[in-house]
Structure formats: structure tokens, C-alpha cells
Amino acid sequence: MLLIPVGAQPLQPNILRVDFYRVKVEHVTEFETAAREHAALLKKAGTSHGFSIWRSESGEREYVRVDAYSNYTELATNPNADIKEIAADRTRLVAAIDSRIENTRRLIVRVIPGASLPVGTELPPMITITWMRTQLGKGGEFQALAKSGLLPLMKKAGMKFFFVAQTVFGGASSDYAIVTALPSWAALDGPGPFDVHGRRSVPALSQQEECANGEPRGERVSLPSGPELSSCSCHDDLEMNGDRQRQLAHSEVVARSLSLLSAR
Asked: Domains in the chain, start-ordered, CATH in brackets?
């Protein structure tokens, strides 16, 4: 899920903390209201550490908060807690947000250098997140293929937002996320860069995925950011080679970016 942080973010984030929130159905409005006020409070105070919030549009109904860091040491810091002039209001709003959450889970992931595009300051309106699980001992080969195969193809397709991240804590280290921007739902009516370029143009990737009884496992997810939920679609006349019967194991989710709930 993975998304780019906002505010005074590192030029190229290396570590992402990803929090998944399942909000009680009857309290969605109150949750979003408190989150919106919290984001506005931090922006007004000139926070030095921002974050982005996304809402899943497929799969389980979840909100996702993403904070980005340059290194692991920064995970132990919380610059927003040190802004004394907003301490009381921030405590109240955080409590209001937490009281509407049914359960949470957290992942710490690292962005794979050499397999990702540089992060800009603008978030896409929507993203797709494709989760994959590599075979035991094949993580290095998967990363190499992402660097030599997927990244060049994404560049050729004109993608501006793309990265590959590996789970470090909170899940299996063999789990990877491939994140791409989506311009709109309509983009899904044509072949997307991952379907065409990633899944079929780089068939060797399928050999690195974990399969059960010869069938691919996984799930594909897409997520949008900001006020709009979007999806990304690029066309390319690159030949679709490889075995069509042996697709990548994946799960994909779409998420919408909620800019009013993000501290940018």
C-alpha cells in the first residue's frame, strides 16, 4: 500500500510504515471528520512530518495511512508530538480517531532501490497495489528481475509513479508490493502497464512466485490517493510473450487518495 508520504518528506523515501485501519461502519463519517480536522491542525502548525491517507476501493474496506522515512532510526521519532501549541487539540482528535477504529495492523516495508522511480512531491489520485509472494530463496532473483525487467518497461510506458517494496516487519519477508499510479477507472478498460508489461512481457517473474498445486497464489489490490480515486493505464505495442497459462501470483487492490485527511 504504499504510498508516498506528504509534508517534509525525504527526497527518496527508503522505509514506509503502513497502517491499515478498519473503521466501524456506523462511525465512518465521524472518523473522516476527526481525521480531516487532525490533518488541518498539523498543516496549520507547519508539521515537519506529513503522511498520506488512502481508502481501499476493492477488497476489504480499509483506510491506509502511509508514513515515509529515510532510515529505520526515524521510526522512533514523532515530530508532531513535540508541537506544544497544538498538543491538547491533537490529543483530543487522535482519541476521537482511535475510538472509531475497529482494528488495525501495521507493516514496515522497504523500497527496493534500483527497482523504483524517484518519488515526486505530487501524489497520484489513485494507485494499484499488487501483492506478490516469492518462492523461498528467490527474493534476490525477483528483485533483480524487477530492476532489469519491470522498471525499464514502466519507464517506457511513461509511468511517473512506480515502486517495488519488500515487507520487513509485520508479514513475510517474501511478500512484495508493486505500486503504480492510476489516472482513472476508465483506464482499466484497456491493458495496463502491469498486465501487459509486467505479467506477460517479463514471464521470468512468474517462475519466482509461490504456487500451490501448479496454480498461482496471491491477490491483486489497487488504491487511490487524494480527493479522487484513479487508476493507471498505459498502452504499448510490446509483444506479449511468455506462457499465458502461467500468470504471476498476485492480489490487487484499488485505493483512493484522501487529500483532506492527509497532512501535506
From this structure: 1-264 (3.30.70.100)
